[in-house]
């Protein structure tokens, strides 16, 4: 598992992908920092992370996940991966955690905005850390969706489109139809953006991630049996 994790990290940081993702994330953070902090005259960074999660993840997640399994399948290395001594569960988790690590790096860098605000006021570090925790959870949930999309096709573009479409539906579900409100991921993130650790939201986001991780494992397991 560690070897696959390192391999995935190298694929992100020895290519433009990781730096493009971090650059786009920081651009989103910068824009929403101006819109939510300077424009509104607040030292609360909850809005910064909320709007970055709402709009940034739709762009970032497909970039991080569309090549996960689609590329392996297209290049023919998937068979070697699936028949290796590493379990499919470990393969899936290694790839998922590597993508999540890129987001964690960006979150650490985003603390510079907290440092900037510290010169202008007295922001609450606990509220900021809770917002970041929620950001990690919603990132995990959305990454699992992208990973599943990548596992069902060998075309990275198609995987990216599927991921974007699903994320738009899941993030804005409450605005699409009232019945879908219970599946709106951004609503689960709302308490964290307000500085509150919600057990219900935490369980919901983890359960969402668990479902798509499980679906990915099932897809790969069936493909392994076919091979």
3D structure, described in words:
The model has no long low-confidence stretch (mean pLDDT 87). It is built from 11 helices and no strands. With 227 residues, it is an all-alpha fold. Helix 2 runs parallel beside helix 6 and helix 6 packs antiparallel against helix 11. It has one domain.
Give the key terms.
single chain; 227 residues; mainly alpha
Q: How does the SSE layout of this entry go?
A:
Layout: H1 2-13, H2 16-38, H3 46-65, H4 70-75, H5 78-82, H6 88-118, H7 125-151, H8 156-171, H9 173-176, H10 185-193, H11 199-226
Helix pairs in contact: 1-6, 2-3, 2-6, 3-7, 3-8, 3-10, 6-7, 6-11, 7-8, 7-10, 7-11, 10-11
Globally, the shape reads globular
- The total domain count is 1
Tell me roughly what share of residues is in helical segments.
over 70%
Secondary structure category: mainly alpha
Average the pLDDT over all residues and give the rounded result.
87
State the distance separating the first and last CA atoms.
Answer: 22 Å
